[in-house]
Amino acid sequence: MTRDEPLVLGIETSCDETGVGIVRGHTLLADAVASSVEQHARFGGVVPEVASRAHLEAMVPTIQRACDTAGVSLRDVDAIAVTHGPGLAGALLVGVASAKALALSLGKPIYGVNHLAAHVAVDQLEHGPLPEPSLALLVSGGHSSLLKVTDITGHDGGVDPLGATIDDAAGEAFDKVARLLGLPFPGGPHIDRAAREGNQVAIDFPRGLTSRRDLERHRFDFSFSGLKTAVARWVEARERSGEPVPVADVAASFQEAVCDVLVRKALDAAASEGIEDLMIGGGVAANSRLRVLAEERASKLGIRVRVPRPGLCTDNGAMVAALGATMVERGRTPSPLDLPADSSLPVTEVLAG
Amino acid sequence: MLLAFDTASPTVTVALHDGTDVVAEATATSSMRHGEQLAPLIAQVLADGGATPADLTGIAVGVGPGPFTGLRVGLVTARTMAHVLDVPVHGVCSLDPLALEAVETGAVDGDFLVATDARRKEVYLASYDAGAVRQDDPVVDRPATLASDRPVVGEGATLYPDAFPVARGPQRPSAAWLARGVVAGRFTVLEPEPLYLRRPDAEIPRAPKAVLADEPSPR
Ligand SMILES: [Zn+2]
After folding, report:
1. Quick check: ipTM above 0.90?
2. Do A231 and A142 share a structural domain?
3. How many helices (H) and strands (E) does chain B have?
4. What angle (nearest 5°) sits at the alpha carbon of residue A336, between those of residues A330 and A340?
5. Domain for residue B212, yes or no?
6. pLDDT value at residue B218
7. Quick one: A303 and A202 in the same domain?
8. Do both A290 and A144 map to the same domain?
9. Taking the model in full, what pTM does it have?
10. Predicted confidence (pLDDT) at residue B212 exceeds the cutoff of 60
11. Rounded average pLDDT over A142-153
């Protein structure tokens, strides 16, 4: 870390985490996150208005906490970066407005960046500069995408979507199956834990979009809706017959079906594009089985796998700051002050112009 | 220098007050899009008033009631700027500047009401005395329930003439009057907390529905 590297503060409010991160170049200085997840638990999913209210309350305290942790004053910051999409419109807007207020008050540039690209850029804080091209598998409660990344700042078609989910996001499937099994929200960590005691080949759940016919049209796309229904049917049939539901086996078999499809398609995409580096990010990347399976199979193909530590995989401000720092380093033009929040921002638009 | 803004109505409004009077003000040219319009309007008003953020000694912000998404844009902007610049935030009920403007411009004399659009066929409403002092906390309800023959200031009266036949004065809050009222000590100053008046729309889900029962079962 040198003083020449840009000091960037990043803000993330696209869902239920209020994140403020501070980086200097590729060095993480602070990653403050306030989550409203507890307030959503009884609703079984994120309630947008509840999340937006929580962002407003958490915003300034989280900025303060990030500065304290990093040991920097806001006046030292060289640039502000903020997620301006995609995500929940009202939630995004709180972060965007706060970021503009920072930029305006400090007289510093603002970079409105894409949430998905930030999930990829965060790995630079852990494993150094991202090899370009890389293949990125982003999986969370909100997204399931396969991206070819030739320039993480988005120049010249820098982020190219090869595939995405056609129905539920992978993390959503974890939440829904957890609910079926009586496990708490968010489901990911609870399924992961339950699965450790179970047998992953106990039940043969379907792998979405892997039949020959589906592969013709959806080679790199995902579908988790059919899997979710299959689990529901299996559990219900079991309950009707009066037999106990083997929670651990269902969790392990479901998790295996998700991870199998994700890894299979990601490695197929990497091989077909001749890419040797696979980056896995998003909340589901914290899943222990996904990491193991990806590394096991990738090593046989000579593909390197990069997975940031779990705390950096879930939504946070550090990932936004990391992408912002790369924007500064590569001399990209800052965003205008009338930068909008765009809930359906396409992944190809990495920086708001 | 006091910077004032309100985002509780469809129109973003910003003003700068130098302690003597308003030296610059700007109003959004189109409705809504608060998140896009507020920061550029603040930059414009500061430039027009020959000021920089460092010259600010306080921020006045309308805390609603008003549509939540826009309201939060104003509040998070006020809180963030105040944090960076280390100046106080004066929160003001967004109906109060309408009342002050109505009294000071002679649109009303005696007691009156202020009503603004709360969407969903409802209005936000509070009552005021002849000196523009608010007499109660604002409420949200259907116009028919709140109907009154007293003079009513604000867009609520224009939208629902059957309930509020005596419409008067300004339609939406102006940051210039927000600034004047704060400088003159005419408002009850509140914390910069949003006056939502409504709970979030959220339903607690029922038990997982039975897929075998409501979907055609596979043979
Ligand atoms: Zn995410």
Report:
1. yes
2. yes
3. 7, 10
4. 110
5. no
6. 34
7. yes
8. yes
9. 0.92
10. no
11. 94
DSSP 8-state code for residue A243: P
What number is the average pLDDT over the span A95-116? Answer: 98
Q: Quote the domain boundaries for residue B67.
A: 2-94+173-184
Which chain A residues contact residue B68 at CB under 8 A? Answer: 49, 52-53, 90
CA separation, residue B92 to residues A32, A335, B193 (Å): 31, 32, 10
Looking at the structure, do residues A155 and A106 belong to the same domain, yes or no? no
Are residues B119 and B78 part of one domain?
A: no
Residue A9 token pair: 């503060």
Q: Give the range of the structural domain holding residue A111, as residue numbers without chain letter.
A: 7-122+316-329
Q: In this predicted structure, what is the pLDDT of residue A264?
A: 96
Rounded to whole angstroms, the Cα distance separating A214 from A197 reads 33
Q: Which residues of B touch A (CB under 8 A)?
A: 33-40, 42-43, 52-53, 68-69, 72-73, 75-77, 79-81, 83-85, 194, 196, 200-205, 208, 210-212, 215, 218
pLDDT of B217 strictly over 80: no
Spatial CA neighbour of B4 closest among B19, B25, B35? B25
In a domain, A2, yes or no: no
B180 with B83, same domain: the answer is yes
How far does residue B170's CA lie from ligand 1's centre (Å)?
44
Q: Are residues A163 and A244 in the same domain?
A: yes
Nearest chain A Cα distance for residue B4, angstroms: 14
- Per-residue model confidence (pLDDT) at position A44: 75
Candidates A20, A77, A93, A250, partner chain B, best to mutate (most B CBs within 10 A): A93
A36 pLDDT band, cuts 50/70/90, is confident
Minimal Cβ distance to B76: which of A44, A56, A229: A56
A306 with A322, same domain: the answer is no
Contact (Cβ atoms closer than 8 angstroms) between residue B102 and residue B169: yes
Residue A286 has pLDDT above 80, yes or no: yes
The CATH number assigned to the domain holding A283 equals 3.30.420.40
Give me the residue from A50, A93, A104 closest to B35, CB to CB: A93
Specify whether B22 is located in the same domain as B86.
yes
Q: What is the DSSP string of A176-201?
A: HHHHHTTPPSSHHHHHHHHHTTS-TT
> Are A24 and A58 members of one domain?
yes
- With contacts defined as CB-CB under 8 Å, which chain A residues touch B83? 60, 63-64
Model pLDDT for residues B88-109, shown as the tens digit of each residue: 999 999 999 999 999 999 999 9
Q: Minimal Cα distance from B210: which residue of A?
A: A236
B93 within 8 A of A74, measured Cβ to Cβ: no
